[in-house]
Write a structure and sequence with these properties.
It holds the Pfam family DUF2625. By secondary structure, this protein is an alpha+beta fold. The protein has a single domain (5-165), classed as 3-Layer(aba) Sandwich (SMI1/KNR4-like). It has helices at residues 15-19, 26-34, 47-57, 64-71, 95-98, 147-154, 158-162, 171-176, 208-224; strands at 40-43, 74-77, 82-85, 106-111, 116-121, 128-133, 140-142, 182-187, 202-207. The protein is globular, with a radius of gyration of 17 Å.
Amino acid sequence: MAAPESLRAPRAHRCATLTAVSDSAWPELRAAIASAPYPTALLSTDDARAERCLSTLGITTRSWLGALTRYSGGLLVDHGWLRVNGGGTDTLPDVATAADPATRMLVIAHDVLGGQFTWMPAQPDEPPTVHYFGPDDLGWQDLGTGYADWLSAVLTGSLTRFYENLRWPGWEDEVSTLRPDQGIHTWPPPWSAEGQDLATASRKPIPIDELIAYHHETARQLDQQ
């Protein structure tokens, strides 16, 4: 899949053109959501907001990203552990709003511990791939996969293994009570030697933006040492 226009150059598109396709990915994506092996909530969307977001991205609903953006506010996957950005809601930003113009990357999802998934080129002029910033190592990892393949893996069970070292007994009940704009701050933090066992760590909900900013600022400070 080609990079969105917003990753290359700003350009406005009429949403009618972007949605008037005979082979929309939405039926396929909706079926994948319905068959996910863990609880996955499809958030409702405001049509006007979703259409603006799709126009900003400059992609059609033939793509999984375009379909999710136009026809949903986003996804809460695996009891809400992973929050996938779509057309946006009051508590979950749309993909265009969550984009980082400084790095030309799309923030496509975040997890409850403040980890981030982005879609961006690893090198200039290369196709974009999904990258993950982990709260346990404060570093970026190129997952080497495109958006559709990444989301397909998420919806077929990949989160269980991906997060196996970052969960604790009873996490499902704890996480499912949170809003998409909340995360769980743990102390000691998961990137410290003392914070590896989240079952014994102190845990409390805080705004997810604060949690993400805390992890990135800590990573910046450690890089300067």
